[in-house]
Amino acid sequence: MTVLVTGATGTVGSALAARLVADGRPVRALVRDVGRARTLLPEQIELVAGDVLDSASIEAAVEGCDTVFHVAGLPEQWRQDMGDFDRVNAGGTDTVARAALAAGVSSFVFTSTIDVFAWPSEPGATFDETALATAPKHTHYERSKQKADGIVTALIDEGLPARFVAPAGVFGPVPVITPGANHLIRRLLLNQIPISLPGGLPVVYGPDVADLHVLAETAPVGSRFIASDRYVTLEAFARAVTAIEPSAKVPRTLPVLAARAIAHAGEAVSKLTRKAPLLTTGELSFLIGDVRPDASKAQRELGWTVTPFEEALATTIEHLRPLLRD
Q1: How far apart are the C-alpha atoms of 324 and 25, rounded to whole Å?
Q2: 199 vs 184: CA distance, rounded Å
Q3: CATH code of 104's domain
Q4: How many domains does the chain have?
């Protein structure tokens, strides 16, 4: 039966849609601009116009679908109107999840985030799916995803057959470059980073995340699976890029105290200018927090595997080259 994917033009959604098409499954994608999406997605995909904030369009898109993959969301850390995070990430999830419940789908797979879990107080300590964070996280993005995760969790008691996939920082082939690890790769390739931020992040390859979504589709209801390959410092990430593209340079690393000063000053100025700061305190906190999610549950219970990092990065760079000047 037909599978609905929201967020099909994003980093995870595009990889998932391509995987489902390759599996020979009928795929329907909810998109805001059908004409634009037609140039970005495989021709086999049925495109339906709609928005996660429009319940009528969601109900129409879900009709006749057996599985819903809700991937759509705002992945960035700053918006002119910070209320967008709650409206799209939390409110949009509520709309899609309730429509899926009313339609009686057999599986609802929600793209959550590693931010919803309780992180150890000691930097560098690993964490898994055992415990959700009980206190609100630091950024509007994180808090909106916490709310969205809570909405889906509560609807399980009403009969929603939900499963959760929680990715780390995702990179990989995409039709368009969006905020996140792919944007970092693009800037490194173009030598647009004169000085790097301190710290690092856990990363995972987009097609591998797509595979985990498909594997999670038939897991026990309520199951949660972290999608992460490894933790990599920004310096090591830059070195990996330069090993593939020698024209790229490894920038010097900014000291933590200087980065903190820039983040606080930038956020203060952004309140006046209504423009995004170069660095937010939330982003910096994440980078220097030495966040290390453990994805062994997905490997153990579902047989999930990851593509070797160097191979995944090389494939990503090759796919991003035509998009570098966009």
Answers
A1: 32
A2: 14
A3: 3.40.50.720
A4: 1
| Residue written as token pair 């310096």 | 235
* pLDDT < 70 stretches in the chain: 326
Q: Is 44 a member of any domain?
A: yes
Distance CA(93)–CA(56), nearest Å, equals: 14
Structural domain contains residue 295: yes
Task: Supply the range of the domain harboring residue 129.
Answer: 2-177+202-230+291-307
pLDDT at 77: 79
Measuring CA to CA, how many Å separate 254 from each of 182, 201, 261?
A: 21, 16, 11
Quote the pTM value: 0.95
Quickly count: other Cβ atoms within 10 Å of residue 194's Cβ. 9
Q: In this predicted structure, what is the pLDDT of residue 134? A: 94
Q: Is residue 243 part of a domain?
A: no
What pLDDT, on the 0 to 100 scale, is given for residue 89? 97
Give the Cα separation of 51 and 124 in Å (integer): 39
**Is the Cβ–Cβ distance between 99 and 62 less than 8 Å?**
yes
Distance CA 76, CA 87 (A): 14
Pairing of strands 200-205, 230-233: antiparallel
Confidence (pLDDT) at 267: 87
Compute the C-alpha angle 270/149/93, nearest 5°. 75
pLDDT of residue 326: 61
Q: Tell me, what's the pLDDT at 273?
A: 87
Q: What letter does residue 88 receive in the DSSP assignment?
A: I
What is the rounded distance in angstroms from the CA atom of residue 240 to the CA atom of residue 187? 14
278 domain residue, yes or no: no
Instruction: State pLDDT tens for residues 156-198.
Output: 999 999 999 999 999 999 998 888 899 999 999 999 999 999 9
At a CB cut-off of 8 Å and minimum separation 6, what does 189 contact? 241, 245, 248, 317, 320, 321, 324
List the one residue out of 237, 238, 243 whose CA is nearest residue 194. Answer: 238
